[in-house]
Amino acid sequence: MRPIYLEMDAFGPYAGRQVLDFRLLGDKTLFLIYGPTGAGKTTILDAITYALYGHTSGNERTGAHMRSEHATPETMTRVSFRFSVGQKYYRIERNPEQEIAAKNGTMKRVKAKTAFYETDKDGTDLRLMGVKKPEVTTAVEALLGFKSEQFRQVVLLPQGDFRKLLLAKSDERQKIMQTLFRTQKYEDFQERVRSRYDALSSRQKDGNAEVDRILHDLGLSEEAQIEGEREKRTADVEAARREVKASADDLAARRKQAETDRLVESHFAALEKAERELQTLQAGSEVQKEREKQLDILNKAAVYEPQYRSLAQWETEGKARKRLLDEKEAANLREEEELKEKQAQLQAVAKKQEERDASEREALVLRNLLPKVQGLGQAQAELVRAEKASAEASRVLNDVIAAYTALDEEEGRIKAAREKLKTAPEAAEKASVVVRQCEERVKTEQTAQSLLNDIRALKETCQTAQSAVEAAEKAEKKADLTVKTLQIARLSGQAAVLAKELEENHPCPVCGSLYHPAPASETGQIPTEDEVTAAETVLATAKAKLTDSQMYRSRQEAFLKAKEDEHTRLREEVPADGDIAVWLEKERQAKEEYEGLCKKAAEYKSFTERIDAIQKERQAALLQKDEKTRLFDEAERSRIEKKVIVQNLEKDVPLEYRNIENAEKRLCDIDAVVQAYDKEKRDLEDLVRNVEKRIATSRGEIANLCGEVARLREKYGAEKKALTAKVLADGFASWDDCRLMQASIDQRDELKRRIDEYSAAVHRVEGQIAAERKETAGKTRPDLKESERILAEKDAAYKALVAAAEHAKVVLENMDKAIGQIRQLRNEQNELQKQFAAVGGLYELTSGKQSGISLERYVLGALLDEVLTAANLRLAIMSRRRYSLQRSTTWEDKRVKQIGLDIEVFDQYTGCARPANTLSGGESFLASTALALGLADTVQAYAGGVRLDTIFIDEGFGTLDSETLDTVLSVLSSLQESGRLVGIISHVSELRERITTRLHVNKTNRGSTAAFEVN
């Protein structure tokens, strides 16, 4: 990222619009930002960070807190930042939420706005990349390659925080390097290997569990028992098969004997049945004789049947003629009575001739009036239609008027209801802001509580660390005293040894004197060199332990200070006002209120839409009302005209004939009366003539029938007398007895059939008895129930043996199937083991199970080595080759070993490495600056890495002496060769003399201003 153009309005100490065009720097890549305290030097970095991430460089203030106190009420706080990444150009604009003066002088709240554009080189917008704060921040993070916290550790080193990258924990440094070098692919590869390893491991466990389950189902505890168990179950199957075969042979023999018993029993049963049937037939022999006698009588009666039938015909004919004679006489009598009646009716009809003539005259008058009556009817029908049309038009007009009135009333009601809700939309919007504020406050309180928990834990850790330091100090002092005591004692002892060898006039090997007035004497036992060395070793160990304890205490105190500072900044920004429960309740109440206001706002919108619709409907109803009024007037005029026509026609037609239906009906009735009279008269005259003719004919027929009846009576009597004599002579008791038997002649065939059937049945049964006696001769009748019982027992035993054999077979088959499954599972396990051997080795290697360093951490460690190598090139110059940065190789903390990215400082003066947090302020500044530059060089060198074209350093130079300051500036000046832009914020006056390219920030009573000074 390289800045191009920064524009600030009412931001921080800058009251008006402040423009910083970085293009004015030209090819100058090192510049100084200077000015008095509070003028707004760091604000420039705040503006850049706010534009990119939505908060300031120290992450202590939001954009809303950066509004200038010097700005006029109508000036809006705003930041616009143009920058480039590689060959592409971008622009971001952000306005924080704020209150500004409206045109009417009142204060109005303006919502926060954000816009992110891709532009061309001249700043013309090419495309919009986002307008919402979260999506813009996410897009910036993706574009630059790191989040705001990482941005402040790598690109922008804020005042007081420039040591963060140097002192960061290994896991924090890992996140930064993951982002900068994009090593996520190594972690992804580790994850894929781990997933494959877990899958293979799970499949192995599942396979073993499945084998155990199969063995459990077989009732076995281990696979070695399978072979013996299978042999046992195979023997069970063979034994069951033999038992089934023996039982089957026994059952077949028993079934054969049962069949023989059933056959013999059937012959004995058939013999009993035939004998019972013969006894039954013999009991019916008398009935058989009676049937033969009855058949003989019927045959005799059949001989006289034709003669009886002939006499019956003559009798029937005579009776028919007599009935016909009686009927003719009765009919003739009725005809004479009818003739008298019709003659009387004809005389009565003749008396109504006058009424008939009057009706005919009335009909003539009605026929002349019919045309007028029809005209009146048509006019009345048209009048009825006109009245209906007028009534319908009136009804429609009233409906339209009612609808128009209803719309007026509805509009009034809805307007009144809407008026009650007019504040709902704005209130809902305000409530949404309150909800968001409550949600943010809940998150803040949760963060604060988490920080307090961390602070309490760290305080306890610091107390423990302090106790450890005090104990280590005591041990170190004790060991130091011991060493010094031993050293003094040994020196004293050595002097006594040398004194023994001194001789007068011979030089002392220590001072060279020839005189020895006071030689040293022995004061006790002299410590050996090994004792001194052992004591020194104890002292070195105690010092190392003390150093380690102090380093651990310093780290924990630094962690505690960072947490306390973070909590303090949080509480300065958001003072404590209730615990989490209070704010959760406020959040719930705010959400309830917001939901209720949203419903009211929706009702308000619905009412507004309905009012607009009603106004349109009312306009349409007004047009419809005018149209329906016109139609009603036309219908009413037509009705009046039709009514006048009807009244004129009614004057020419009598009241009783004005209805065409009544007139036509009356005419039809008159015509019907006349026609009925004429028809009745003609019919009566014709009827009288016909009756007279029938009476004359009937009298001749009656005379002829009387002669025929007398002749038939005489012939029937003679024939009956002769036949009666023959019947009596043939053995019948009487005439009627013979005729009675003739009625049963049809039964002869049935009697003959029964006689023949009886004879045949007797013959059949006698033959069957002879045959069955032959079959049972010499045999004993078997006990069939006992035979069937024995057969059933044999069959049940056989079925039980078959079921047992089948069960044994199924058990063996299931076992064979289970053995096959186990073999298949073991084959799969062997194949899995081959895969597991390869994948497991790769997993052990990439996950760092043995070495403690995973693949990604190994790569990051190598990259960190390169970063430190690049950093040491500059740190060696700036520290006059005293300090160099290196990765820590001693891990007391197991968690540190899992990361492997801790940095320590090697001091050439002492020949020892120590934690970076033990450096002084100036030393930390040099190391942090070198590390930031080395990181930028290494990242830039990797293809596809994040571009680090710019670095800002806020303060830290005041801790350097003049000579070191020259060295640092020399190193920073050399960055011009790489084209990297370096901005320095400092109060150090020497920097203004040595850096000629400057950004001067001036402070006034009306706000600050800034301008580039390029020489």
Automatic annotation (TrEMBL):
Ranges for domain Rad50/SbcC-type AAA: 6-209
Protein family (similarity comment): Belongs to the SMC family. SbcC subfamily.
Assembly notes: Heterodimer of SbcC and SbcD.
Gene Ontology BP term (one): double-strand break repair
Gene Ontology molecular function: ATP hydrolysis activity
Name of protein: Nuclease SbcCD subunit C
A matching Pfam family: AAA_23
Keyword Coiled coil attached: yes
Source organism superkingdom: Bacteria
Keywords: Coiled coil
Coiled coil, from the record: 241-291, 321-396, 441-478, 646-701, 741-775, 808-835
